Amino acid sequence: MDVLVGYEPHGFDELLSPDGPRPHYELLVERLTQFEPETLDGRLRIIESLFRRQGITFAVYGSDEGTERTWPLDLVPRIIPADEWATVERGLTQRVRTLNAFLDDVYGEQQIINDGVVPRWLVESSSGYLPQARGIAVRSGARCVVSGIDLVRDDEGTHRVLEDNLRVPSGISYVLENRLAMTRVLPNVFSNYRIRPVGHYGASLLRSLRSIAPTGIDDPTVVVLTPGVFNSAYFEHAFLARQMGVELVEGRDLIVDDHAVYMRTTSGLTRVHVIYRRVGDEFIDPIVFRQDSLLGVPGLMTAVRAGTVTLANAIGNGVADDKGVYPYVPEMVKYYLGEEAILPNATTYLPWEPDQLDEILDRLDQLVIKPVAEAGGYGIVIGPKASAEELETAGNLLRRDPRGYIAQEVIQLSTHPTLAGRKLAPRHIDLRPFILSGDRIEVVPGGLTRVALREGSLIVNSSQGGGSKDTWVLVD
Amino acid sequence: MLSRHAENLFWIGRYLERAEDTARLLDVTYHSVLEAGSERSPAEQWEELLETLFLEDALPEGTPAGDRVGSLLIADRAYDGSLPSIIAHARENARITREWLSVEVWEAINDLHLRLGRTDLLGAAQGRPYEVLQMVKFACQAVNGSVDSSMPRGEGYRFLLVGQRLERALITARVLGVWQRRLGGFAAQAAFAEWVKLLKSVSAYEAYLRAHRASMDGRRVLTFLLQAQDFPRSVVHCLNLVDGVLGRIPTVPSDGSLRKLAGRVRSDVEFAELESMGDELGDFLEQIEEGILELTTEIERTYFRPVSTTFMHSYEAF
């Protein structure tokens, strides 16, 4: 097929610069030229049946088309050259180190608040701030064992942080499955590229988790705690348990006795030392948090307090990925590390500052409005695409609850060639890299590239009809 | 291993066995009704099928059974006892327990589920049920093959196996019990085709012929299906295996009560003096069924619900 005939991106395109294909994509273009559209279509079908057969699916809430959909993978991989990645990797390491320090501080001495860098009222009004977590220490300060930092590239090609996900970020299983599927279905596209592997993630995660086990345990027992089979990310929970070779437990499999956690097994009770939990804070212990939760473990927090078990990620992390706290992260980098932030934020306005609120309301139709505590693309209003009615509703919400929202300049996300029918078309993408914290910080090469499959759409979330791409980080 | 996972694997074994047996019994019934080798009416034979599968309540009271039973069991995805439901249950349990299954076993189960999902089951039930029934039987046996060749011989494998063999023992015992009630025992005369049907219901036709030449004798059939040490669907063969496997899964507390029960149920079958039994045979066959069910309950109590939850004393509020 003629890969780039009629391919006309508007903003920053990952593959095509105004002078032609970028050098690291030239080989890929050449390879793709050798395929007929029918062939690619056929390969796509193979992947789909591969995924369906293996059960690589995700659940879509509120859709009645069964509850499972196969994971949508686009066949055109995203390529990141080594030098570009080196900068991103340093930026991510710096950011996660900072956020870990911030959380340790907020739930400890609160120096950053006492020094007036982050306002106390802002922290304490965050729905993710849990006073119950005060005073609970975490080894190595590794509160964000797994972080997903969402990056976008603006129209100048600068990587910017769009949001931090420090509670239970998901998507890593798809990174690994995408790679596996691509090597099976399009092996010849890989040739002559040297791509950094991602398959060791399970081992790295297990190492990180074991490194923060309560002290004095020689051979800590790690488990993955899932809300259960009806959770949209259940496939991933099972996948990670398998990759690590540890038990996948539900709340009802665990029991707390005398400040220690045990799992119920066929040969009685077995001690548990580290829980990689994919259950939200508010559901984790019905005695301390939501009493109607059936997903958690009664008494778990007593064990956490007693230091007999470590939760990963730690509880209360939501205060650091609150979008109202996000604008302060560059300041935090300076405060804790004495460095300038390597990865800039998106330009953000704070509705609780009266002068900024006025400007936001004036320019409502040009800005993006985001609720501070939501994830997954829910509740976002994109000014330029919103109706007058939607804008009015958004304005009222902002006036009534300024702490509940932030406003950002619209970022024209970079585009990437994506299979659309029988040709390639530019579609907007973002990137969710995964960062592991334990006794050291490790960045998974690449991450999950999400792509908005509808033309012009800026929403890439899989729950909102987004797709994904295999993401290659090249070896130097 | 986690009690919940052990229970899921136990049920995967049971569901797969039940699916295979349901498919086989359906096939045998369709065949028997078509050929008219039995002197009994089709309605009675469909009722017999439901009784064998413990599904006496499948039809509203007073509804005459007919080949609607076939459609119900093959095509009604909403009915719990239907093939697509049983396989969906097996698949759901497998999905929850994936990290204990090999990739091959999971994919084989998932594949069968998906194939049933895209098959016109009602069309098959009303047209040519043979193909879909054969497909289910083969697929279940393929899963068994994958289990055998790809799963480590740990607890997960053992629970799956125990579930499967208990279900199999139960169905074989049930087939004999239903015959006893409906055809008046094993000393009575019955059409040759009825004996063939009985043996084929548990896949024993050719095995029996080889063991006893072609002499069709009720007492021998009964003995074969209960006590044959070398036939994998005889009740004693299944219970031997269950007994042996249970011996390799430690219990807490290790008071040996589960082994004792397994040994008793097995030896009740193994050493029964079938030749000398007269009218009491009916009661005896019922006792075997009950023994198997009791053993199942005891396994669940021992391994799946081992811990009493009387721990709630040590929570302090904070």
Question: Describe it for me?
Answer:
- The complex is a heterodimer of chains A (476) and B (318).
- Chain A is an alpha+beta fold and 476 residues long.
- Chain A has 14 helices and 24 strands.
- In chain A, 30% of the residues lie in helices and 23% in strands.
- Chain A has a five-stranded mixed sheet.
- In chain A, strand 8, helix 9 and strand 9 (247-249) form a beta-alpha-beta unit.
- Chain B is mainly α and 318 residues long.
- Chain B has helices at residues 3-35, 42-52, 68-75, 83-96, 103-117, 121-126, 129-150, 155-183, 192-201, 205-212, 218-227, 235-246, 257-270, 281-304.
- Classes of the chains: A alpha+beta (476), B mainly alpha (318).
- At the A-B interface, helix 2, helix 9, strand 9, strand 10 and strand 11 of A face helix 1, helix 4 and helix 5 of B.
List the helices and strands and how they pair.
The complex is a heterodimer of chains A (476) and B (318).
Chain A: E1 16-17, E2 20-21, H1 26-33, H2 37-54, E3 57-59, E4 68-70, E5 73-80, H3 82-106, H4 111-114, H5 120-124, E6 146-153, E7 159-165, H6 172-185, H7 187-190, H8 201-211, E8 222-225, H9 234-244, E9 247-249, E10 254-257, E11 260-265, E12 268-271, E13 274-277, H10 300-306, E14 310-312, H11 318-321, H12 329-337, E15 348-349, H13 354-362, E16 367-371, E17 381-382, H14 388-400, E18 405-409, E19 415-420, E20 423-432, E21 434-437, E22 441-443, E23 448-452, E24 466-473
Parallel strand pairs in A: 5-24, 8-9, 8-13, 13-14
Antiparallel strand pairs in A: 1-2, 3-4, 6-7, 6-21, 10-11, 11-12, 15-18, 16-17, 16-18, 19-20, 20-23, 21-22, 23-24
Chain B: H1 3-35, H2 42-52, H3 68-75, H4 83-96, H5 103-117, H6 121-126, H7 129-150, H8 155-183, H9 192-201, H10 205-212, H11 218-227, H12 235-246, H13 257-270, H14 281-304
Helix pairs in contact in B: 1-2, 1-4, 1-7, 1-8, 1-9, 4-5, 5-7, 8-12, 8-14, 12-13, 13-14
